[in-house]
Amino acid sequence: MSIPDDVRTAPSGPAAPTSAMTGLRTQRVMGIETELGVLHADVSARGTEPTSSIALSHLAVGAYALLAPEEGPRGQRVRWDYGDESPLRDARGFEIQRAAAHPTQLTDEVSDAHLPSVDLDAPLRSPDSPPQGDDAAILDWASQRSIGNAVLRNGARLYVDHAHPEYSSPEFTTAAEGVLWDRAGERIAQRAMEILESIPGAPAIALYKNNTDGKGASYGTHENFLLDRSVPFDRVVAALLPFFASRQILVGAGRLGLGTRGQEPGFQISSRADFFEEQVGLETTLNRPIINTRDEPHSDASRFRRLHVIIGDANLMETSTFLKLGMTSLVLAALEEEQRTGEEILPRIALEDPVRALRDFSHDPSLQATAPAAGGGRLSALQIQRAYAEAIRDRADLRDPETAEVIGTWIELLDLLEEDPRLAGDRIEWVAKLSLLESYRRRGGLEWDDARLRAIDLQLSDLRPERSLFAKLVAAGRVRTRVTPEEVERAVLEPPRSTRAHLRGRAVAAHPTAVASAGWDVLTLVAEDGASARIRLADPRVGSADWCAQHHVDPEAEPAEVVAAFRRALEPATEITP
Amino acid sequence: MSQQSIYGSGPAEDSGDLEQSAGSGQVSASVQGADDILEEIDLVLEENSEAFVRSFVQKGGQ
């Protein structure tokens, strides 16, 4: 049985459940991506230049993608399909010419020896067979070919971005799912390290979930939110600037050292704040803006915008990930509701200088810092966050358990921060970090710039279980967790059910060699007779478990059957011709 | 800004140390556990902190 080409799905349903009658909810299509710090595990092998980061990043990605038995046949991985990704499309409605862009902005040109086929009818390239031989031989082959991209069975993308291994979670629709598939990324990083360590001759590596080396380099943890394109972007910017400048007091990871190089001793709330220089802009690697305008919805651009949030910290604390996704999604829900009804829901707060406020708030763990408001007066981060939280609470659907939990925790933690930040150390990451550093410092009578304290700051984010200081805090019961190790293991093997990641991940797990490539909005399947079809997914909810059940699509069926089922699902829509 | 008292002039200003802010049961309880955790950390903290911190060099990313 052969597969017909060019199967397209019809758009189905609205972007997010509208909140018309029920009130604001956290649910929407979201994702979270993390660039990891990467180093030789052996400190003496590191040198003082980051020359090996790219090579080590490829080793990390290659080791997991090609050699983890749970990810399919040895030596093989599902290739990434860049789909219709166009990083230079700008949310303000204009495009920067490619030639004028800084080279590091061209993320779709990051070297990968295997740029996937993107042509519908083109025959697939001959398979790039890995060598027969041991793990070291496969790894060596992978390094030579710069294999730096793979689609995982949980629907995630694992790849080399710039000089860091990056885990891009599968799409999900709740903050709770976000925590789980973010943690799955940590587990995958651990597996990569374990695999490398087991291969004779391969360098053992250490991966860190943090945002800076303390020497001027920063790498990101990005959240992604799909939102209704009808909300004017100016309104998104106005509402998010004060929100993003201040949300760090709840979800900041904490950082030792002030300034991009940590040149001044001291502790600050956010690990990213000092690396931001603009209010709004397209760049992510230089002149970083609080609001990033990269606009690749990986879906129908006439209905959806993807908000690419680059200001977040890499969080180890599960409450922080839960809250930053939930809070931000609720602010976006409020914006959508304002647009729909014409009512004012969110507070109209404008800061005179949001970039300055971001930094001032971050540098003041006492939370007394204030920033000048545009209309006069001054506001603290606590005041701004309280205004957002209360405005949203008043319009939220509190019968929705996750929405109620996000808002309840948001307000409870603001209360605790106001009373005494130390009371919130079990759920606010920067507080946990600061409390630990403070007691360590006091016990040894250390100065704030002592190397031991800096080492603790870095080693909290070490993802090796035996080295991780954060794991010690968890084991000691000093921080709350939301998910169990068993749940995390399952999230490594299974995609979320709520989005097209379900289709992608299930297909990859069931037929790793029949999925020629996959991307956020594309899936290319090859039938037994070699015919291939590329399914394009204009809506991230197409391919969810519910959608598949409704449309009788079984992602684990033979590829030809999956494609046939998509064709049948399409039929009613194609009958309507305007 | 001085970070001598790291939490600065919050409501607990005059109790700059964890031990002293014993007004809250939770805080006292966590202080009790604090020494245990510090010992745990001593066991796994990179031996040569100075060299470890110096060797932690990354290329910038997004």
UniProtKB/TrEMBL annotation, chain A:
Q: Where is the composition biased (Low complexity)?
A: 9-20
**Is Transport among this UniProt entry's keywords?**
no
Q: Which UniProt keywords apply?
A: Proteasome
Q: Where is this region: Disordered?
A: 1-20
Q: Name one Pfam family in it.
A: Pup_ligase
Cellular component (GO) terms are: proteasome complex
Superkingdom, according to UniProt? Bacteria
Q: Which family does it belong to?
A: Belongs to the Pup ligase/Pup deamidase family. Pup deamidase subfamily.
This chain's protein is named Proteasome accessory factor PafA2
Q: Which organism is it from?
A: Brachybacterium equifaecis
Q: What is the lineage of its organism?
A: Bacteria, Bacillati, Actinomycetota, Actinomycetes, Micrococcales
UniProtKB/TrEMBL annotation, chain B:
Superkingdom of source: Bacteria
Give the originating organism.
Answer: Brachybacterium equifaecis
The UniProt entry's sequence similarity note says: Belongs to the prokaryotic ubiquitin-like protein family.
Q: Name one Pfam family in it.
A: Pup
Composition-biased stretches, type Polar residues, lie in 21-31
The record's listing under NCBIfam families reads:
pupylate_cterm
Q: What is this protein called?
A: Prokaryotic ubiquitin-like protein Pup
Annotated region described as Disordered, given as residue ranges:
1-31
Which residue ranges does UniProt annotate as crossing the membrane? none
Pathway listed for it is: Protein degradation; proteasomal Pup-dependent pathway
